[in-house]
């Protein structure tokens, strides 16, 4: 039997997990599969969770976020495009290669402010308006707030925005939180959890709720956000945390990501042995619309699942079954732990399971699909086995 070749596109959580799963299975069974991992040009694969937790607040240097080597060939040459029928990848360098199977795990990119926000481009050019998604972003934040008590304007009150606001406050900086929703996080976490999270923020810093930036004014020593109600908020730096978009190579390079089936096979390339995992993958839960998950542990779980599905389709492993999100996540926010498991997006209702500690269950009909809570790590772990009961997902 000739050696099969597999390309893993992307060296973040999903890509490294997929590569590790492939390498482990190859070593255990002796099958002839050659794996190549593609990172972005000039990139050292790193743990993205340490961008805000470590580098931005000066606790870590960028090199300290490096991921361990996976034991396969690593090529730092961005995959710009893929020919699905030929399973051919086109690289930044101009080189092209063909593989027997592909796992696309190229992650996500941050959402930016709309172009109609007056002064947006000037603010970006001066470095006083930044996202917090990459190591370069983290270094920009670190350098802007180093050696003084900075006034940081946080745009966005989701998990990343909330955690970063807490980290900056703990580091001695002054934070103003601006959110488009009157109750940030309610759709993802449930109203009870979101309200308690908001209460934690209000005790620590100013919060401007239900507002959107209309204009940004940049001066030599400060930056000002003008909100749609004409409120003006001054600071030294604006950090934008309005979520992410998929970052897939062509022909999936638009904002919609790569739709996958229950084994994480790309739906638009049937029978081509192309899989997607992590922030680029778009899932469809039975009885619900499509959704995407972009957090580290779930991306890693998707990468492992995609690797197992690939090996099964090549005849080297058992069918891993349908992928359903059960990974846990947590963030430390103003002395308390926001925690959860699964993904609340498919839910049609939310029920309070406990008030002390606060724990909410997210249900699709009668099926529990996610858990969220505050200071409820043990309770979430105890109920992991209750997620997705008797859920039938077609192959």
TrEMBL record:
Any one cellular-component term (Gene Ontology): cytoplasm
Keyword Flavoprotein: yes
UniProt key word Mitochondrion: no
InterPro entries: FAD-oxidoreductase/Apoptosis, FAD/NAD-bd_sf, FAD/NAD-binding_dom
Cofactor(s) annotated in UniProt: FAD
Source organism superkingdom: Bacteria
Listed transmembrane segments: none
GO molecular function, a single term: oxidoreductase activity, acting on NAD(P)H
Residue ranges annotated for the FAD/NAD(P)-binding domain, each copy included: 5-303
Pfam families: Pyr_redox_2 (PF07992)
Keywords from the UniProt entry: FAD, Flavoprotein, Oxidoreductase
Protein name, per record: FAD/NAD(P)-binding domain-containing protein
Lineage: Bacteria, Bacillati, Actinomycetota, Actinomycetes, Micrococcales
């Amino acid at each position: 039997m000739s050696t099969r070749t597999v390309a893993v596109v992307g060296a973040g959580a999903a890509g490294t997990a997929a590569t590790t799963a492939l390498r482990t299975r190859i070593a255990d069974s002796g099958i002839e599969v050659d794996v190549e991992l593609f990172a972005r040009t000039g990139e050292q694969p790193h743990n993205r969770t340490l961008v805000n937790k470590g580098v931005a607040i000066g606790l870590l240097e960028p090199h300290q976020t490096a991921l361990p080597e996976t034991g396969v060939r690593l090529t730092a040459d961005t995959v710009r495009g893929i020919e699905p029928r030929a399973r051919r990848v086109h690289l930044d360098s101009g080189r092209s290669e063909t593989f027997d199977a592909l796992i696309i795990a190229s992650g996500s990119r941050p959402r930016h402010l709309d172009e109609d926000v007056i002064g947006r481009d000037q603010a970006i050019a001066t470095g006083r308006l930044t996202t917090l998604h990459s190591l370069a972003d983290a270094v920009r934040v670190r350098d802007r707030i180093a050696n003084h008590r900075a006034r940081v304007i946080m745009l966005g009150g989701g998990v990343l925005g909330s955690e970063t606001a807490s980290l900056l406050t703990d580091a001695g900086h002054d934070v103003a939180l601006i959110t488009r929703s009157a109750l940030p996080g309610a759709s993802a976490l449930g109203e009870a959890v979101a309200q308690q999270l908001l209460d934690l923020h209000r005790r620590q810093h100013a919060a401007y709720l239900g507002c959107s930036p209309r204009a940004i004014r940049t001066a030599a020593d400060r930056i000002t956000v003008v909100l749609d109600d004409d409120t003006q908020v001054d600071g030294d730096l604006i950090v934008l945390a309005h979520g992410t978009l998929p970052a897939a190579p062509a022909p999936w390079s638009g904002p919609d990501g790569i739709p996958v089936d229950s084994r994480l096979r790309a739906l638009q390339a049937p029978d081509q042995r192309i899989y997607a995992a992590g922030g680029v993958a778009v899932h469809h839960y039975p009885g619900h619309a499509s959704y995407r998950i972009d957090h580290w542990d779930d991306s890693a779980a998707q990468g492992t699942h995609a690797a197992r599905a690939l090996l099964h389709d090549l005849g080297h492993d058992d069918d891993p079954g349908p992928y359903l999100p059960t990974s846990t996540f947590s963030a430390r926010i103003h002395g308390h732990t926001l925690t959860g498991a699964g993904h609340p997006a498919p839910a049609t209702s939310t029920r309070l399971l406990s008030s002390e500690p606060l724990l909410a269950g997210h249900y699709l009909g009668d099926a529990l699909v996610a858990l969220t809570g505050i200071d409820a790590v043990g309770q979430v772990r105890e109920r992991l086995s209750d997620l997705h009961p008797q859920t039938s997902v077609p192959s």
